[in-house]
Amino acid sequence: MRARRTDGIVRASGPGARLLRVLLFVVLGLFCLYYLFPLFVMVSTSVKSLAEIREGSFLALPRAISFEAWAKAWGSACVGVRCDGLQPYFMNSVMMAVPAVLLSTLLGALNGYALTKWRFPGADIIFALMLFGAFIPFQVVLLPMARTLGQLGLAGTVPGLILVHTVYGLAFTTLFFRNFFIGVSDGIVNAAKVDGAGFFGIFFRIVLPMSLPAIVVTVIWQFTQIWNDFLFGVSFTVGDSNPVTVALNNVVNTSTGVKEYNVDMAAAIIAGLPTLLVYVVAGAYFVRGLSAGAVKG
Amino acid sequence: MASGIRLENLRKSFGGTEVIKGVDLEIEPGEFVVLVGPSGCGKSTLLNLIAGLETVSSGDILIGGQNVNRVPPRDRDIAMVFQSYALYPTRTVRANITFGMETRRVPKDAQEAALEEFSRLLQIDHLLDRKPGQLSGGQRQRVAMGRALVRQPAVFLFDEPLSNLDAKLRIEMRTEIKKLHQRLGKTVVYVTHDQIEAMTLATRIAVMDNGHIRQFADPATIYESPVDLFVAGFMGSPPMNMIPGRLFHENGQVFVLPRGARERIRFPLDGPAGQGEGLTDGREVVLGLRPETIFAAGAKLPGPNRYLFEAPVEVVEPTGPDTMLVFQIGDQDMVARVRPEDVATPGAAFRFEVDMGKAKLFDAGTGKAL
């Protein structure tokens, strides 16, 4: 495609400019170290044995690499009284995050489409009210939400958590899609209307396939939010239905026995891996989506 | 089957602004009607009303004798070509063209047959598996046409379909659209701001201004007998010369004395323009002279109703087949269309001859033709 090249632009030269560039890269390098250092400590600690952690410095490279701590964090670490590791809670998180992300993304896309392409009186007011939802702090909705879940009979369950995240996420997903669709030519929707398609026909067959970049952004955002959420998880689930974030907290904060730093580190990395994965996988589609065909040259 | 279209006292308002102010229009089946006018005159809104993409505020739209005020676009038996082409970017050319048939559940083999026929007709049969993003402007234009043609509706609506093409391609596609119309014989309503497109394509032209239709007639009538100054000034390139002046009589002959003219130039109205009623002495009028009716003295065979005058040339603009000479009468800029071999020098006097038989006369106050 016609990507604009910017690396050919003539830059200032001379010793002053060169010094500034060196300084720039030194600063950037320091920032990199600052951000990468904790990750390095976590990964290296997680593959050390407990003995090595106790004897050596936490900065030192591991002498021998062992994945025992990983296996324990996954399969046998104790969360409260149950010693099955993070695995069941990880599955809880998957069972919660995947439907919640898909539902909130789909509904957000539908909202954005209706708000921009099927304009109705009061559309702007409805959008403003929905936008307001994005600024409501989590804490404010805890009690009403708990009461609603109780009335619905969903208290303390994974489906209840799905509902909470879907509803809370709608403000954000609607915002993302509305802003994307506002840039999509109305002509395309009009053409599809003349071609005989209806509201849902146009949505699923024309508009939704076009919105891949918005879908990817929304999925990354929603997945990160929902997977990493602790407050809703700890408030609305109990014991066996806890998401992985709550279970991780229970593993790390256990007050009995020896503090197993390598298991804690491995557990923390396991709990964080899916968001990284989603970013890498979805990010690849994101780039592809951006370079897909445009409407007009 | 081609259908006729009838608009009866059609009005459309957006909020408090009335955009279409009572339009009546009767389009015969198989006609090619061009809606032309400056931007903001309401021509695209009128087209959207016919398409059903806008709801009428009052009045009636009839397609094929049936009132379609409350009929959604998909049930109006129309197809539309949009200015931006509005192709579906994620679908291949093939899927773009067949989309309308898919939604109408046309059998697959009928879809294939129609696709093949029209993609060959439009010479896009080698592009069927590409996405719109991989096509040039002209190719996209053809795909957009294909998408409209393939369903063979009763009425085609074109919304400035050629305005995004470069000049050369525009002329090619213009000819192709005319060919297609002659071949398919469907009713076409075509919106453009380009008066040359209007002249070349239309069987009848509706000149629009400010929500009204000023004149609805065949191209020759629009060009030769414009009903008012707006139509006269809009159609034709370069536009008609408009000379404000006053009438006076001398020896039974009516003349126009141009306002502010220092030289003794007075145009005798000895053609049809002098036959009107109420041509009283001192009446304020506007004399309309098309550039091609002013030429170099002696350049054409002598004829009746010629008038010779001399004026200094200000600017010489060669276009190739013709040369435009800009000069002044009074404080009015004038353009004459002369042959390239009629040598003129800027600043020097030039002898012009004008065919007063083709002159138009308008009332200065109302702008109506006299």
TrEMBL record, chain A:
<feature type="transmembrane region" description="Helical">
    <location>
        <begin position="125"/>
        <end position="146"/>
    </location>
</feature>
<keyword id="KW-0813">Transport</keyword>
<feature type="transmembrane region" description="Helical">
    <location>
        <begin position="265"/>
        <end position="287"/>
    </location>
</feature>
<dbReference type="GO" id="GO:0055085">
    <property type="term" value="P:transmembrane transport"/>
</dbReference>
<protein>
    <submittedName>
        <fullName>Carbohydrate ABC transporter membrane protein 2 (CUT1 family)</fullName>
    </submittedName>
</protein>
<feature type="domain" description="ABC transmembrane type-1">
    <location>
        <begin position="90"/>
        <end position="282"/>
    </location>
</feature>
<feature type="transmembrane region" description="Helical">
    <location>
        <begin position="20"/>
        <end position="41"/>
    </location>
</feature>
<keyword id="KW-0472">Membrane</keyword>
<feature type="transmembrane region" description="Helical">
    <location>
        <begin position="158"/>
        <end position="181"/>
    </location>
</feature>
<dbReference type="Pfam" id="PF00528">
    <property type="entry name" value="BPD_transp_1"/>
</dbReference>
<keyword id="KW-0812">Transmembrane</keyword>
<dbReference type="InterPro" id="IPR000515">
    <property type="entry name" value="MetI-like"/>
</dbReference>
<dbReference type="InterPro" id="IPR035906">
    <property type="entry name" value="MetI-like_sf"/>
</dbReference>
<keyword id="KW-1133">Transmembrane helix</keyword>
<feature type="transmembrane region" description="Helical">
    <location>
        <begin position="202"/>
        <end position="223"/>
    </location>
</feature>
<feature type="transmembrane region" description="Helical">
    <location>
        <begin position="94"/>
        <end position="113"/>
    </location>
</feature>
<comment type="similarity">
    <text>Belongs to the binding-protein-dependent transport system permease family.</text>
</comment>
<dbReference type="GO" id="GO:0005886">
    <property type="term" value="C:plasma membrane"/>
</dbReference>
UniProtKB/TrEMBL annotation, chain B:
<dbReference type="Pfam" id="PF17912">
    <property type="entry name" value="OB_MalK"/>
</dbReference>
<dbReference type="InterPro" id="IPR003439">
    <property type="entry name" value="ABC_transporter-like_ATP-bd"/>
</dbReference>
<dbReference type="InterPro" id="IPR005116">
    <property type="entry name" value="Transp-assoc_OB_typ1"/>
</dbReference>
<dbReference type="InterPro" id="IPR003593">
    <property type="entry name" value="AAA+_ATPase"/>
</dbReference>
<keyword id="KW-0547">Nucleotide-binding</keyword>
<comment type="similarity">
    <text>Belongs to the ABC transporter superfamily.</text>
</comment>
<dbReference type="Pfam" id="PF00005">
    <property type="entry name" value="ABC_tran"/>
</dbReference>
<dbReference type="GO" id="GO:0140359">
    <property type="term" value="F:ABC-type transporter activity"/>
</dbReference>
<dbReference type="InterPro" id="IPR008995">
    <property type="entry name" value="Mo/tungstate-bd_C_term_dom"/>
</dbReference>
<dbReference type="GO" id="GO:0016887">
    <property type="term" value="F:ATP hydrolysis activity"/>
</dbReference>
<dbReference type="InterPro" id="IPR015855">
    <property type="entry name" value="ABC_transpr_MalK-like"/>
</dbReference>
<keyword id="KW-0813">Transport</keyword>
<dbReference type="InterPro" id="IPR012340">
    <property type="entry name" value="NA-bd_OB-fold"/>
</dbReference>
<dbReference type="InterPro" id="IPR017871">
    <property type="entry name" value="ABC_transporter-like_CS"/>
</dbReference>
<dbReference type="InterPro" id="IPR040582">
    <property type="entry name" value="OB_MalK-like"/>
</dbReference>
<dbReference type="InterPro" id="IPR047641">
    <property type="entry name" value="ABC_transpr_MalK/UgpC-like"/>
</dbReference>
<dbReference type="GO" id="GO:0008643">
    <property type="term" value="P:carbohydrate transport"/>
</dbReference>
<protein>
    <submittedName>
        <fullName>Carbohydrate ABC transporter ATP-binding protein (CUT1 family)</fullName>
    </submittedName>
</protein>
<dbReference type="GO" id="GO:0055052">
    <property type="term" value="C:ATP-binding cassette (ABC) transporter complex, substrate-binding subunit-containing"/>
</dbReference>
<keyword id="KW-0067">ATP-binding</keyword>
<dbReference type="GO" id="GO:0005524">
    <property type="term" value="F:ATP binding"/>
</dbReference>
<dbReference type="InterPro" id="IPR027417">
    <property type="entry name" value="P-loop_NTPase"/>
</dbReference>
